[in-house]
Amino acid sequence: MDHNEHEQLRELAERYGIASDYHDIWGHRHETPDQTRRAILEAMGVRVESPDALRRALADCADAPWRQVCDPVHVVRADEPAGCWSVRMPAQEQEDRGIVVSWDLRDESGAVRQRGRSEPGAAPAETRTVDGLRHVRVELPVPAGLPIGYYDMMIKGVSESRQVEGVLRLIVAPAACHLLPEFQDGHRLWGLAVQLYTLRSARNWGAGDFSDLNTLVEWAAKDLRAGLIGLNPLHALNNTRPFEISPYSPTNRLFLNMLYLDIETIPEYQLCESAQQTVQDAGFQRALAALRAGGKVDYDQVSAAKWAVLELLWTTFHERHLGGRDLNHRELKPATERGRAFARYVEDEDEPLEMFALFQSLAEEMRRQHPLVWAWREWPEPYRSPLSASVAAFRVTHRARIRFHQYVQWLAAEQLGAVAARARALGMPVGLYHDLALGSDRNGSEAWTYQDVLALDADCGCPPDAFAPQGQNWGLPPANPVRLRATGYRMFIELLRHNLTYGGALRLDHVMGLFRLFWIPRGMPASAGAYVRYPVEDLLGILALESVRHRAVIIGEDLGTVPDGVRERLAAARVLSYRVLYFERIDQGDWKAPEAYPSQAMAVVTTHDLPTLAGFWAARDIDVRAGLGLYADSGAVQRAREERQQQKQRIVRALGVAGLLPADVTEESVAVQPMTPELCQAVHVFLARTPSWAVLANLEDLLGETDQTNVPGTVEGYQNWSRKIALPLERLRDDPRVHRLASAMRALRPLPQQG
Q1: CA-CA distance, 413 to 405, in Å (whole number)?
Q2: CB atoms within 10 A of CB 297
Q3: What is the arithmetic mean of pLDDT over 55-61?
Q4: Spatial separation of the C-alpha atoms in residues 545 and 150, rounded to whole Å
Q5: From residue 367, how far is each of 379, 447, 451 by CA, in Å?
Q6: Percent of the chain predicted with pLDDT > 70
Q7: For residues 309 and 276, what is the distance between their CA atoms, to the nearest angstrom?
Q8: How confident is the model at residue 292 (pLDDT cuts 50, 70, 90)?
Q9: Residue 738 pLDDT > 90, yes or no?
Q10: Which end of the chain has fewer surrounding CB within 10 Å, N or C?
């Protein structure tokens, strides 16, 4: 590649947001290789396979905005000067001062809120020749005084010889995310964190479900006086081992995992004799008993049992509430109030639900016809696009099956919604705290639906750092920022709306992805990746808008390589930082004092990708990683063990300075000192003393469990996302360790007085 071609490639990459370099966690600079630039551009759909293609791509990039009457979307802040928007249209020079632009501004109901018209005579702000025609850009002020929300500007531009029309999505956002009144009044909260599937109970079917969650909420609110319950992502999964059980690699982040349904509390179950007979069958009951008794969640068997009964319940629902009518019509005609509730849900969820249920139905049919083909990109060509004629025909002929999958999602929404409502009724200031995964499985329904936005030939991950010296590839396709904006951010908006529906807080996994994301071209190592910039101010505006509308707090998982200024910008947007005890150290390696934590933050001891507190203390994670061959050699294992001993001594020192060290623990004894309930409580009280607005205690830590939830970089070598907690809910409620720790936490973080 000659110098000129290199510079053109560099310029084009910059225009598409591909950073020319980055600094790693140690401060070392890495320049983006041309091979990486070219591969990422290709993944974005930009052809650069030859010098001529590169020149054409540069010209198209410069001319593309001029081929549009207006930008697809414009985000403004309600508390700032509104600024301007533009109309572009062909016009001869003598026509410039005769151009008139008119528009109707419609709100989300479709009602016209404002009408406007420019005065002829103003000179264009800019001109350009595109496709052999002279174009002009007319600049106009954004309508002022609008309430926050989404608007469509229906635009018409007229000159003597031309008339053009366009639609601009105008988004008016608040300055910052929702602030919980309790935080504003100086209250600090504490709560429990749990991976829902890990819950045991005498009545669930082998995995924690929404009824177990309701039991946990009742207990946590009434007895423990906790203000929130933190959950793993509840996104839809295929629930098949080993590749489709991670809640951070779901098939779809807009909808819920049917695994969490409590089948026996669904109203149709009480009316369906065949379902009751199936469940009460001796063989079925033996299978359920084995699933409950197992120490790991058997996703395949639990989901298969639930699907079998759901099929029967759907038949009953169809007969009782939809009048047994033919369902191969788009319009639902319910026969009862419960049927009408289902119809309202389907109408409210609209196209996203339709596409999810369509994909589920289509995937079933493809598996029947092509048993060895599981990925939609390997389906017969006519079915790979949701916009194809074949998919449209399938949608008509399989309407009844699509309704079944909509019904399953409605049941999940009913049950989770009831738990969220119960948490609010019990006075929990936050209630349920949900987790939004960074991405979804490229073989799933979300990728199929939004393939026009996602870069399916790239993965996202992170560059090499102390935690992963080779870098990390998370195997998730990133959103193309150019396409994200071109589609009016519809995918991002839907993700927020669906995940903010059922609780008072939402954690954004890898929140730095709002600013930039590390792209790794498919087939390249993580170390060959590069950062791609995102329209952060637009995304933060939409995040603030949806947060305020849903009255939900936003927490940003800001771990790993965090660029300068990111935490400050997030803080200004009122996004809470996410602080993990293991990482909160000063430069010398000592642990920070409680008062050094920020107030606008969520503080935790550990996360799903890190060892539990007892596991950290016993170096169980080092044993596991060594057994899996994740260290370079035995010397690396020994160094890890020595470093762990130093870390434990420094934690003990920090507890001692804070006056929290149990009497039988010293820096000298820590080498052989196990993690006791007293020491566990001291660590959590240490966090409870921080000014951070919220603190979460992991249920596994309270029970002294040593095995962590997930070991990053493994799929089959470790039982990720499967381990259940040791105690069933029935015994957990009386466990003295939990009650003692809860007492200590609420002494420092009492719930606000109600009334």
Answers
A1: 12
A2: 26
A3: 94
A4: 9
A5: 10, 18, 21
A6: 99
A7: 9
A8: very high
A9: yes
A10: C
Q: Rounded to two decimals, what is the model's pTM? A: 0.96
Question: Any idea which fold 80-173 has?
Answer: Immunoglobulin-like (2.60.40)
Of all helices (H) and strands (E), which one includes residue 622?
Answer: helix 620-627
Nearest to 540, CA basis, from 516, 515, 509, 504: 515
Among all chains, which residue has been given the structure tokens 């009602």? 111
Contact 86, 154 (CB under 8 A): no
Q: Would you say residue 442 has pLDDT above 80?
A: yes
| Residues 6+ positions from 582 with CB-CB distance below 8 Å | 605, 606, 610, 616, 647
Q: Domain limits of the chain?
A: 3-65, 80-173
> Cα separation of 721 and 701, whole Å?
16
Average pLDDT over residues 729-734: 95
Q: Which two tokens stand for residue 204?
A: 């669930």
Only one residue has tokens 């590069």, namely 530
Q: Which two tokens stand for residue 33?
A: 């290789």
Answer whether 157's CB lies under 8 Å from 655's CB: no
Burial 172-191 (b: 16+ CB within 10 A, else e): bbbbbbbbbebbeeebbbbb
Confidence of residue 467 (pLDDT cuts 50, 70, 90): low
> Are residues 225 and 273 in contact, defined by beta-carbon separation less than 8 angstroms?
no
Q: What is the mean pLDDT of residues 8-12?
A: 95
In the predicted structure, residue 587 carries a pLDDT above the cut 90: no
